[in-house]
Amino acid sequence: VQDGTPYGRYRLIEAIGHNENGETWRAFDTVTQREVAITVVADDGGATLAKPIPQGYGGSGPALEYPAHAPESGFVVEYPVQWASGSFPTGQGQEANRDDPTPAPVQKSRKRLIALSGAGAIVVVAAVVAGYLLAGQGKHGGTPQAASSSAAPANPASSGPFTGTFAVKVTAATLTGGGPMQGSDARAYTDTWNLRSACSANGCVATATMGNFEVSDMVFDNVGARWYGVAISHIECDRPNDEAWNVVSLTQQPDGTMSGEVTRATANGCFTRRIATLTKTGDTDVTKLPDPTHLDPRTVSPAEALHGRYAGQITYANGYQAAVASYGVRTDCLRAGDRCMSMFIKANGSEQAYVFANGGWNRNETFDTPCSLGGSNLSTYTATLGLPQPPQNPVASLLGHGYQAVISGTGVRCHSQAYDQRFTRTGD
């Protein structure tokens, strides 16, 4: 381990001591843009300190590009600690920075620490790291100063890592196949967003108001290295009032801006993609924005395990099997984790849209489709896919049942009938 070594979101700056858990470093948190203290411990294979958790659980982040990629993996590390164990070098200052300045017996409960894997080591960061301000360090290996006897005050709600007024540039919309979307609402545009953020042991959250965006307000969660938000609106997509899932994923760029993908996927299968770039122009009146500290933590849905590449095939009740098709899919969920959108997209831009709720995925799409016996027709496809039990991560296979209702057409020889739908995972 050397100065400058990156570990996930942290960049090591200077080794400042040891404790019983490993080597303590001064480091720069690239997400919150603050200096923090972290402890690097040797990976012992999970026997005593580290245990892997399934991808998609425990705060791992949803993948956001099509074709989908697996979420970032991580570790949860647990061991008995007092308030600052793992944050102070050589055991100094451990009594000085508790919630209550008065010393109290060691609690039997176990504090959870978040860890990021890298290069055969695990970086452990106390969730209460905001309570420790790095003491002044000499440049020649001097002994670190002990922390102040009074706990550092919590950051005010207006000073979170994603707070302020931002000028937003949004590119023109493209379709699933990459071609340009037509219509006045597909044009590039500019907007102003106001954000208020705060961080706690449950992570960082930001509330936002927008002017010209698909929705007027949104909540962002700091998931991995991204600020990620999902909100629902309603638009016309070959039928009125179609439910639209608006997803924004932003990462900090080297020039200080925030940039990332903006997608809109509807229950009837309309999909667009844009790129948004945010440049901070000043402060904002946080009193006009909801307090993010009053929000419940984001809940990770089991549906987020549906991501990657899948082979899909429909088998009709009359025995006819459609050709196997390759799809890329990702799943975006509301903060409560109870409802999600899983959009399966083929390379040619065709898709299948499934909304997750009540333990399963449901499809309800109406569109023109060719008939294998000739002609074309307007059909409504309804289908249900059950969540595998026990839960899989990633989901290896999905099997469900549906019905194609033929509504109208010209020269149509196909008839309404039931079908089976199968998706089998083929990769990331």
Automatic annotation (TrEMBL):
It comes from the Bacteria. Residues 86-108 are annotated as: Disordered. Residues 86-95 have a biased composition (Polar residues). Gene3D superfamilies: Phosphorylase Kinase, domain 1 (3.30.200.20). The chain crosses the membrane at residues 113-135. Keywords: Membrane, Transmembrane, Transmembrane helix. This is Uncharacterized protein. It comes from Mycobacterium rhizamassiliense.
